Amino acid sequence: MKIQLYSFISQQSLTVNRKSIRPLQLIQQNQHILLQALHPISLLQGPRAMEMAKGDVMLAAGPLDITPQANHPISFRAMIFDVMESPSAERASWARSITEAEARSKAERLLEAPLQSEQEIAAAERGLQRIVAACPLQPWSDREVSYRPQEQVEQRVASVYHYMLTHCEKPLTLQELSHLAGCHPVYLSNMYSRVYQVSPMQHLQQIRMSKASVYVRSTKMKIKEIALSLGYVSSSQFGSIYKRYYGVSPNRDRVAARMRLSRNETREEEQG
Known about the structure:
single chain, alpha+beta, 5-stranded antiparallel β-sheet, 9 strands, globular
């Protein structure tokens, strides 16, 4: 089992518009989250409704949404990640509250620790791996499964998705991915879009941008280093895509993240 960190949210606060009725998506299907509620949160996992009290810690597999409540503050810490395992593994939505004192303490320390370097990100991924491994309710099964033709098609799509996750630093093309799946590029694109509701190349962009936000906001890596580590040919190309994706340049986003961290630290010192 290997953990791939998508995004680290040191603290997210949201105010939901009074007229808002649509759930706010936290994670998509096949993504996972370690979540701590800093205010009470109402969640939806498919048809299942769940409540988290202030301070509760949860480990869950997507999809997972926040239920809007007018004038109700939503505040949380989270790590969004993927669990890498055999392409034939069976996945399902699940959630588990972490209530055992030692496990909860480890999870809280992991969510509170700043990520300032690649080494700290790697350490966080190892910490997540230990937490997931200790969870008795696993998002996969070792039992043999007999797949019907449609399930076999979806496994080919899943293999492409996991390949992009582990090789997003390469300049991948649709032709290369279709060769990996053993099908025509157009067929792969259509098949992939039916499963994930997004094209493979758009999904690759999402994967890269999710990792980019972690590196930009939580490490001291140079922007050029981040760009090259994620398969972009130049920092200008990376910066242009990042701004289109997040609405702000990588440098400005980094400055804003540091200012938010500084304000949070000051607020915690004042409250302490």
